[in-house]
Amino acid sequence: MATLGNPPDLNRLDTFFWSAEEKEIIRVLRPKLEQMALEGAETAFRLIPVAFDWALVADDAAAWAAEHAALEVARIGATTQRAIRRKLQTFIETPGMTIGDLTGEIGAIPSTIMDELTNSLKPMFSKVRAEAIAVTEVTQAYAEGERLSAARSREQGLEIEHIWHTNRDDLVCNLCGPLDGLPQSEWESASPGTDYPPRHVRCRCWIGSRWKAVQ
Residue range 136-149: average pLDDT? Predict the structure, then answer.
């Protein structure tokens, strides 16, 4: 909001501004994604009866986290830019709308005030949006860790079969519920085009592995 100014001018949010914003988010997000991917890989590794170089998995996780963070931040940033543009256009076209109104709609308000907002006000940078991104990214990172361990295990002569798991609670959706307990070959047949979790925003599913030695 400080950069937009008063009256707000979208041109002030230039390429340099958005690039700096993306770099800051990546700085925070990348190590967290890497850590979660490693935790997912470690969970799978405990169930696999072969030894492989853990440094290779760590390198895999670091490379994935760097690439995925950049892609996700760019996607989220593009969505944010479009939303801010729409909000500013509404401000310009709406008589009587104040800077305070625009600030509230964008969500650039202190968290102490945010906590007091009613459910009818859902600004762009709300806790709801943050939670949706966080849950989805955690699911993505842990699934990637599982895949990294599986890939290294296959190099050691194991045949790995992934199993889809849900949390088996009231929050499981109709999309994921039927896939619970299915091996990859079956979940891909039951739901063509479904790769790995997350299947949708706020997906909390995860994958496990079964193994056998390649004959």
Answer: 92
